[in-house]
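Quick question, first post here. What does this chain look like in 3D?
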Amino acid sequence: MVNQTKKNRLLIVDDETSNIMVLTHILSQDYTIYAAKNGQDAIEAALEHMPDLILLDILMPEMDGYDVIAALKNSEKARTIPVIFVTGLDGAQDEEKALALGAVDYISKPFSAANVKLRVQNQIKMLNYVNEMAESSLLDQLTCIPNRRSFDERLHLEWGRAARTTTPLSILLLDLDNFKNYNDTYGHMQGDVLLQSIAKIFAQELKRSMDFVARWGGEEFVVLLANTDWDMAWVIAERMRKAVEDAVIPLADGQTTKTTISIGLNVQIPTSGDLPHDFVHNADKALYAAKNAGRNRICRYDSLIKRP
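> Answer (accepted):
Ran it through. Tokens below.
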């Protein structure tokens, strides 16, 4: 149920007044509604009101929805606001483009009131959960990202959601290469600086608000990607690997250093009898294979099970 003591805020963006009116009628009982009729006004409204969720049309004059979400993702202030596209475009390529740009969901017109309510409620529920987590003991004290306990709770939530919606759930296990040697060379305090720098890189490289990164323990991190198939998960993993490889890490004496990571990737659509423990364990197998293959690389679990 939506928290009625303090309503979450929604921004509806559509160049058709009738569409804004319909969505407002559907959602205004549970949420505080703001509206904009063009892209530039949408960006200004987002920065002013900082809504919890944006419902965004694609086909608008001058500045379309794709341009709007790109501008929002480039804004330090607004980049984490989740966006649901609500549009008359219903092609698979349109949806893929929207998700690639960072949208958390895609609703095709004509839509049903019940469908809109459920999709909005799902995103708001997830947002409120993340906000509660930030105020609890679920953050890693060193890196200020979610910790192992937080990951366990999020995995339970996403596993159930993926099973209900029969959508793929992806996991990345990421390990800093040669971290023990790094600590031995530069000291444990510098090792902490490295972990903090890497955590910040991971958070910056995850573009969608529903993407989740946590410190798994020691020099290992874990990423959960909801509704993400093998191909998209690989693209995200490679982007993270390359970002770490290119990063320049400052040292206390003014010098700099560099590092790399290895990544184990697994993707699954949970079905009856499947266990999240096995899902994680198979990603760990892929990570182990990546390390053994020379480090600074990604290994997919499906490539291991296809070997004769």
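DSSP finds eleven helices and twelve strands in the chain.
The chain has two domains: 9-132, 136-305.
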